[in-house]
Structure formats: structure tokens, C-alpha cells
Amino acid sequence: MQPFRDPEQILTRTRLVERFLRYVAIDTQSDEESESCPSTEKQFDLARILVEELRELGLDDASVDEHGYVIAHRRGTRPGALGWIAHLDTAPAFSGTGVQVRLHENYAGGDLELGHGVTIAAADNPEMAQCIGDTLITASGDTLLGADDKAGIAAIMAALEILQSHPEIEVPDLAICFNPDEEIGRGAHRFPFDSFGAPEAITVDGGFAGEMNVETFSADRARVRFTGIAVHPGTAKGKMVNALTWMGKFLARLPMAETPECTEGREGFFHPTGVSGDAAACACDLILRDFDTKTLRTRGERLRQMAEALRAEEPRLRVEVEIVEQYRNMAEVLAQHPHFSTQLTEAIEQAGLEADLQPIRGGTDGSQLTAKGLPCPNLFAGGVNFHGPREWISARVMALSACTLLNLAQAWQSPRDSAETTRVS
Q: Is 261 known to be catalytic?
């Protein structure tokens, strides 16, 4: 085995940074309101480029299907098969259009001024203290960067580039997938299991150096609809039921201590994400999160009880609560595959890092893929402050992600490689 622990080897011998800058310049925002797959046609713009680049790296079967999934395979020289997965889309929460990259070379410490009144404060980003001398990459303050998850894509491509230039490195068969719509919880919905082929995989969609994840939130989405009685405001006394007013009361009754801004670690939350409508009828969208699925169900029941209490106060008000499952904590399934955590930990340590096992206060495609029969923990890609204008990444840390992928592939051994696996599509 040839351990990879020098990020400079990746940065100087591959086009890692060049590729990353090319990818983030392409707007691939997904759209939760769209019913198509992919949810936005522009995700194909990156998908087609990746097909071309994969073929240049010797993965001749690279293709993109009608749903935006890029699939490719590299034949290995040792037994087994392993999948590498990253997603194409960026979050709908903040603009990904017209990303203007800022390269902060030889970072000397302190705050980073991005423009448009946006500053990345070193005091709020303790990871920056570990990046002195690095090249930090940001956007310009008016868009997100897109390191989530174009850094994961770039790390995978850099690892493949190393394997192309060093055919003597022995790895198993590798299955590659770059999928759409992870940010809206649909990345696994049309995953091409049959053509992918690998019995186990890893998503490269995590945070800072050394992070690995085998546990995520369980997640539901809720929509609460309020229907009142519309009356001219001049003659409304005793007649009007203002749906907006009652929605405001509902939002005010959400426990502040159980919101994202007041929770951490394994604490769950209610999170309103949007409102729409008028005084006659309106709706509030929320996401519900907990690591324990039973507690998550209780959280949904609490929403229904709040709605019932509002109806008791104003019988003319109609309140309807709809709850939809998004994904489930992958920890229970991955606990049945301890070899994966062990080997991933060793691969991170071989890269010169300390493995940082963190529960994800969010989800990855791996949550749903694991539930569908494809065990799929998550590896760091290097980014910090996802989904907003203060997103940043160190080129060195991105290179360390590629190092870890190469280490994991070289050492990969799995009892599932020789077993029949059944996946639910």
C-alpha cells in the first residue's frame, strides 16, 4: 500500500483546484418546488462536463442518464468494489448564480473581507486557525461558494487523476456517482442501483478535515395550512378570521429553545423555512429534526396538538398539518457494518489526521441510500459555513479528502464484496 498523507502531492500533481473553480462557476441550484428530476435543468450543465472529464481519466463508460445521475466505473486490480458519491446541486437557501471566486493565498490569519459587507470572522471560525499558510477559497459575499458539494466532486476527480497517472496503485473496482438534488432530499430517489453496481459506497459531502459521519438526523418536512374567513376590514368586527394572524400565533408558540439557533449536538429542533398566502388562507413550511426517530414522531404530534389548540380558541379557523418523511438516521444500519467505520478511520489517520466522528446535524444522500440497502457513511470534503455567503474551504483540506479516498480504496476489504446484495429501488 502507498499511503497518501501529503496534500501538496495532490495539489501539485492534479488539477484539483482548477477543477473546483470550474465547477463552482456553474450554477446548479436545485428547486424544491419543482417536480422534475433533476429539479433544475442547469444541473445537467455540470453533469455533462463531468462525463467528459471522467472519460479523459479513462472511465470510458461514463454517462449521464435522463434524471441527471452521472455514473462511471474504473476497473480495479484487487478484489472488491467500492463506490464514491458526491452531489451536483447547491442549496436553494442562497444564490448560486454568478459565483465570483476569491483566492486568499498564504492565509496569515484574521478575518476575511469578501465584499458586499460580508466578513468571515476568524473568531467564529476556529477551523481557520488550522489553515495558516493555506490557500482559502471563498465567494465574493453575494453568493454561496458551492463547496457543498463541488469540493466532494473535485476530491473524487483528483483521486481518479492520481490513479490514472499511477496504474501501479492497487485498488478495487470503483463505482462513481454524481447525483442531482441532494439539497432538497431527493438525491437517492432515482439512484441507479443496478448500473452503479458497488455493494457499499461513501459520500464525500462532509465538513472540515478529519470528519467522518455514520449518524445523521432523522428528518421530516411539515406544512401547516391556515384557512380563515375573509371580510372587508371596514366591516370585519366579529366576522373576520385572519389566517395570517393565527399563523403568527402558531409560530410564536414554537418553543424557542428547540430551534436551530438554540440547539447543538444531538438536540433536535423545529425550523420554520417559509410562509406564503394572505389573510384568507396561508401556509407555513417547517423542517423537523431529531436523531431518535421516535422523538421525531413525537415532534410531529406536538405540531398537531398546537394546531388543535388554535382550533379550540377559534372554531371557525381551519388548520391542517401535513407531515412528510424526508430521511432517517443511518446509524442503526451502519452499526451492522463495523468494518466500514474501522477502515474509514484508518484511512483518515493514514492521511495524517485525527478521525473526528461527528453526528451530522443534517442529512446526506447516504441516509436514504443506506436505508435502501447501500451502506453509505460520509467523509469530509473540507468546506465550512455551507449554504450561505460565508462559505469557505482550504485547498489543502480538500486535497486531504482526496488522500483519504486513496487510502481507503487501497485498504478496502468488505464481507459484502463476495455476497449477493438486495437493494430496494
A: no
Q: Catalytic residue, from 27, 89, 173, 215: name it.
A: 89
- Whether 182 is a known active-site residue: answer yes
Domain that holds residue 243: 219-326
Q: Please give the single-letter amino acid code of residue 370.
A: T
Cβ atoms < 10 Å from Cβ of 7:
23
Give yes or no: residues 159 and 38 share one domain. yes
349: left (phi over 0), alpha (psi -120 to 50) or beta: alpha
- Is 137:395 a contact under the CB 8 Å cutoff? yes
SS3 content of the chain, % helix, strand, coil (to 5): 35, 25, 40
Taking phi over 0 as left and psi of -120 to 50 as alpha, with beta for the rest, 281 belongs to beta
Tell me the C-alpha distance between 354 and 225, whole Å. 47
pLDDT in tens, 329-387: 999 899 999 999 999 999 999 999 999 999 988 878 998 999 999 999 999 999 999 99
Question: Per the omega criterion (within 30 degrees of 0), is the bond before 181 cis?
Answer: no
367, 247: one domain = no
Question: 157 and 44 in one domain?
Answer: yes
Q: What predicted TM-score, i.e. pTM, was given to this entire model?
A: 0.87
Task: State the catalytic residue, choosing from 148, 161, 181, 182.
Answer: 182
